[in-house]
Amino acid sequence: MEIEESGLRFNFPTESIAIKFDDTDFYRKRYNVFPDSKGVDFISDTKEFFVFTEVKNCKGDETNNIWRIYPDNKKADMTTGRDSLDIEVTQKVVMTLAALAGVNTYGSTRKDTEELINFAKKTFGTEYAEDRKKILVILFLEGDFGSTTRPKKMVMKDLQDSINKKLRWLKCRVSVVDSKTYNKKVFEIK
Predict the structure, then answer these.
(1) What are the residue ranges in the chain where pLDDT is below 70?
(2) Whether the Cβ atoms of residue 19 and residue 43 lie closer than 8 Å to each other
């Protein structure tokens, strides 16, 4: 299975299921009517993880996004309303969970929930509490954000720590990665 997002192709292992969340009927026709609704780019289910992935491919546009790599930067771009990436990713995970809760309330009774119902059931199942599966939140950050005083590895660690702090109410693991550091068990970039 392959999903294209932000000019990158994500290939998933054959035993995984993945879906581009904001392309689903439920997101576009039902959930997106909620003001300021948002969600992660895609959701995937692997043998080990249930994954929420947000992709930010800033390659070539780093200058316009540099302020977004600083945790808790509430500067918010007045033209787009965007916040720093740690705030945005956290909000998208929370709102994706809310959308999946909505899907779960309908179950299989609606046609627009068909694409997401299995993900919703997994999200609210007992596998996580019983440690049979982990929730993984990924920010895939592509772009040259490193400097001599603050290498990209440090930028990614700071964002990861901030997202972890904001999501400590959720039993999950957070990973901020790029095309050089991602976990090939979850997906591969082509």
Answers:
(1) 75-81
(2) yes
Nearest CA to 46 out of 18, 74, 69, 71 is that of: 18
Q: What is the pLDDT of residues 21-53, one digit of tens each?
A: 989 999 998 898 888 889 999 999 988 899 999
Bridge-based pairing state of the strands 172-177 and 49-57: unpaired
Residue entry with tokens 């959720």: 170
Residue type at 186?
V
Q: Say what the pTM is.
A: 0.89
- The DSSP code sequence of 21-89 is GGGSHIIIIIGGGSTT----SEEEE-SSEEEEEEEEE-TT-HHHHGGGGSTT-TT--TTT----HHHHH
How is residue 96 written in tokens? 């994706």
The Cα 105–Cα 183 span in angstroms is 33
DSSP state of 147: -
Amino acid at 147: S
